[in-house]
Design brief:
This protein is an alpha/beta fold and about 350 residues long. It has 11 helices and 10 strands. The chain has a domain of about 200 residues: 2-enoyl-CoA Hydratase, Chain A, domain 1 (Alpha-Beta Complex), CATH 3.90.226.10. The relative contact order is 0.13.
């Protein structure tokens, strides 16, 4: 039998040509990846902006920004009171806003102790704040004046309530026509949250020793006895405010009371009411206080209030007072007793 040759089946015994290569399929970027990249870019820009702002704050706090720096042979001190007035020291770092009384007093003492400083200008741009803090600054300005150095006040955008309290201690007050000032009065506000708690099902529990210890806590409405206590407190502070303004401005207390109804005035109206002495800018006030001190040439101004790098970053670092430490110790001891970690013997 004749055998016929058969060709091998495709794929068996013969090399096959590779299929033509095709370019890999290109896929577009997913929406999630685009969102992540966008957020990363925005975060990077925010960090760069924050860094620039921080450097600017450091330069302003440490080196001084603007027209007034530490000039050789300075003979007029410029002290700024800006933001809400508080009693005590500042702990806020470079972005803290406010005028802490201890920092302002330190600057006033520096001006008093520097024999080259012949006059002081206090620049005020504050809506007020703490009554005690305003009183501390007021008293220090009066003390500086009693030591023989003239002190003038210059008002910026606003010098109201405690801001005006401080200004009243100066020998003369300069304001811009559009300055907002006045607001001689005292206020206390209480937020009653009891109705909100009832609606959302919260029932506060208060443990106290002393009938009025939770007065004004906001956990319940105040009663008439508590309102009388608060009103008596405000009346007392109001009388102190009026008396100090009358002393500083050399006005009868009855006249001050007529003006002390809490209303605000423009600088122009305040001049008519004799709450300020003249209208003029900070430059006008600097020239006037220099002239009052007998400085004939252009005054050389040193601006106090510059701080070290560590103070600019972290504020004034102070140890807590002993009373605070004792309170923390007592609280911790009570907590341990409650938990059973300490045992009290009868």
């Amino acid at each position: 039998m004749e055998q016929q040759s058969q060709s091998p089946a495709p794929g068996w015994g013969q090399p096959q040509a590779p299929p033509p290569s095709q370019p890999p399929e290109r896929r577009g970027m997913s929406a999630g990846a685009k969102w992540a990249i966008g957020c990363g870019a925005a975060l990077a820009l925010a960090l760069v902006a924050l860094f620039v702002i921080m450097i600017g704050a450091m330069v302003g706090v440490i080196g001084g920004m603007g027209e007034y720096g530490a000039l050789p042979g300075a003979n007029v001190a410029l002290i700024r009171i800006e933001g809400p007035i508080t009693a005590g020291a500042s702990f806020g770092g470079p972005f803290a806003a406010g005028a802490a009384s201890e920092g302002i007093i330190k600057q006033l003492r520096q001006a008093a102790d520097d024999d080259s400083i012949e006059a002081v200008l206090v620049r005020i741009n504050s809506p007020g704040g703490s009554a005690a803090g305003s009183q501390e600054i007021y008293q220090e300005i009066r003390r500086l004046r009693d030591e023989g150095k003239p002190v003038f006040a210059s008002m910026g955008d606003v010098a109201a309530s405690g801001g005006y309290y401080v200004a009243a201690a100066a020998e003369r007050i300069y304001a811009n026509p559009g300055t907002i000032t006045g607001s001689i009065g005292v206020i206390a506000a209480n937020l009653d949250l009891s109705g909100l708690f009832d609606k959302i099902g919260i029932e506060p529990e208060v443990v106290k020793e002393g009938e009025f210890k939770d007065m004004g806590s906001g956990l319940r409405p105040m009663n008439e006895a508590e309102r009388r206590i608060i009103q008596q407190l405000l009346n007392d502070i109001y009388r102190q405010f009026v008396a100090d303004v009358a002393e500083g401005r050399k006005m009868p207390e009855e006249r001050v009371k007529e003006l002390a109804d809490g209303r605000i005035h423009t600088g122009k109206r305040a001049l008519e009411l004799k709450l300020v002495d003249e209208l003029g800018s900070i430059r006008t006030a600097l020239g006037a206080v220099a002239k009052r001190a007998g400085i004939r040439d252009e005054p050389k101004v040193v601006e106090y209030g510059k701080r070290s790098l560590m103070e600019a970053l972290f504020g004034e670092i102070k140890a807590p007072p002993p009373s605070m430490m004792r309170g923390l110790l007592y609280d911790r001891t009570a907590d341990l007793i409650t938990r059973g970690a300490l045992r009290v013997e009868d």
